[in-house]
Design brief:
- The chain is α+β, with helices and mostly antiparallel strands.
- The chain folds into three domains: about 70 residues, no CATH class; about 90 residues, DNA polymerase, domain 1 (Orthogonal Bundle), CATH 1.10.150; about 210 residues, hpI Integrase, Chain A.
- It is about 45% helix and about 10% strand.
- The strands form two sheets. It has a five-stranded mixed beta sheet with strand order 1-2-3-5-4. A three-stranded antiparallel beta sheet has the order 6-7-8, with helices on one face.
- The longest helix has 20 residues.
């Protein structure tokens, strides 16, 4: 039987009291009957049914044996292919199995689930998988364009779409994969702070903390002015943000690490070099310890002494905002404080590319500072310690550097060889 194409849908409840235009609609096209946005069957008129049977060379009795139910003046034809949403659910199940085997991180599975829910299922979810065609992919691309998604983001969504369609092909639910465009990725340099901006942020965070200053009660900037969702106890800045700024720039960690790092993950090493060894949970398949710069030791000792003075500092206590058990909320509070400190210190809230500055910029600053001021550091050592790749550093961090930033090194001369 040929593939069903329809632009008209009704809910299952509508069949109890058919809308006036239903009979007119089925005269020229099949109508998809949905239950919770999932097609259960198609409704076709007698003329279209006869055309379908004639095209397939089958009689009405053959059609009934195949599972169709005929009633004048309509016929109900079952949906043969699984829905794209069913294929997506199967894909998620397979990816979760890979995560359990250690071949994939649980975070990657959650990211896939989020992307499916955000944009892929709203466009493709209600379609039988063998109905997915160029027009639907074009609609998806338009949707992402309306969202002003970057080329990298669009490419990541298309990877998931391609995986789902390959799964459908492997299960013989489709005979071929529709053409899915390849998006040329334009890499944007990561937003960082200059040494001057970093110093101003530290000084401002320390001043606001010591003065017990109170955050603004209303939103600043353009747009509707609404009260912040931050509770009263977080309207006064504690020392945590000052420690976070210094710690991130001297330790290469991600904001997700700041959210989950506990005292049991931190070890002070004193030898020929003094540093912290951070044995953090695995992130993006990286599980090796991180070695910090020496200033991170002083910051950690200060926050540990403060925690112990307040009855904390145990192995399972968090380093930053330990009283906040909701760690996602803790990270949001830190980003709120960062915006406040940026405004107070006169550091722009957006970078030169128009991107908003967040806690992630502190990690970018940490890596960029090592490229600028680390004597003789090689890319591989830096990449492994920062739990990233050499390619990522060359693409997103080293690309922002230019000769004038390190003119002293460019103009340096080797001394005479030792005798």
């Amino acid at each position: 039987m040929q593939k069903m194409l329809t632009n008209y849908t009704v809910s299952l409840a509508d069949l109890q009291a058919p809308p006036p235009d239903l009979l007119a609609a089925v005269a020229g096209q099949p109508v998809a009957v949905l239950d919770q946005n999932r097609p259960l069957f198609y409704v076709v008129g007698p003329q279209l049914l006869q055309a379908l049977m004639a095209g397939a060379g089958r009689s009405a009795s053959d059609l009934l044996e195949a599972g169709a139910h005929v009633r004048a003046p309509l016929a109900l034809l079952p949906v043969a292919a699984p829905l794209f949403s069913d294929v997506a659910a199967k894909l998620l199940s397979l990816e979760a199995d890979r995560a359990r085997r250690g071949a994939l991180s649980p975070e990657s599975v959650q990211i896939m689930r989020n992307r499916l829910d955000a944009h892929l299922l709203p466009v493709f979810g209600h379609l039988p998988v063998d109905d997915v065609g160029p027009e639907h992919i074009e609609a998806f691309m338009e949707r992402m364009g309306d969202q002003e998604a970057s080329s990298t983001t669009i490419s990541q969504y298309l990877v998931i779409l391609r995986k789902a369609m390959k799964l459908a092909l492997s299960r013989k639910w489709i005979t071929e994969i529709p053409e899915i465009p390849r998006v040329a990725i334009t890499s944007q340099p990561r937003s960082t702070f200059t040494v001057d901006q970093y110093g101003r942020m530290l000084r401002t965070a320390r001043r606001l903390w010591r003065e017990q200053a109170e955050a603004p009660s209303i939103k600043q900037g353009a747009g509707k002015r609404e009260r912040f969702w931050v509770t009263a106890r977080y309207r006064t800045l504690p020392p945590d943000l000052y420690w976070v700024i210094g710690f991130m720039v001297n330790s290469f960690v991600r904001p997700s690490d700041i959210k989950c790092i506990q005292h049991k993950h931190v070890e002070i090493v004193r030898g020929s070099r003094v540093y912290l060894r951070l044995n953090l949970p695995t992130t993006k398949k990286h599980d090796k310890p991180i070695v910090t710069l020496r200033p991170a030791v002083r910051l950690y000792e200060a926050l540990l002494a403060h925690a112990r003075a307040n009855g904390g500092g145990g192995p399972d206590d968090y380093l930053f905002l330990p009283v906040e058990r909701d760690r996602t909320h803790a990270l949001a509070i830190l980003n709120f404080w960062l915006k406040w400190v940026l405004r107070e210190s006169g550091v722009p809230l957006v970078d030169t590319h128009g991107k908003s500055r967040t806690l992630y910029c502190l990690r970018h600053t940490s890596i960029t500072f090592r490229l600028l001021y680390g004597q003789g550091i090689d890319m591989l050592t830096l990449a492994r310690n920062a739990r990233t790749s050499v390619d990522m550093i060359e693409t997103f961090y080293a690309s922002t550097l230019h000769g004038e930033m390190n003119v002293g090194m460019l103009q340096s001369r080797r001394g005479p060889p030792a005798r």
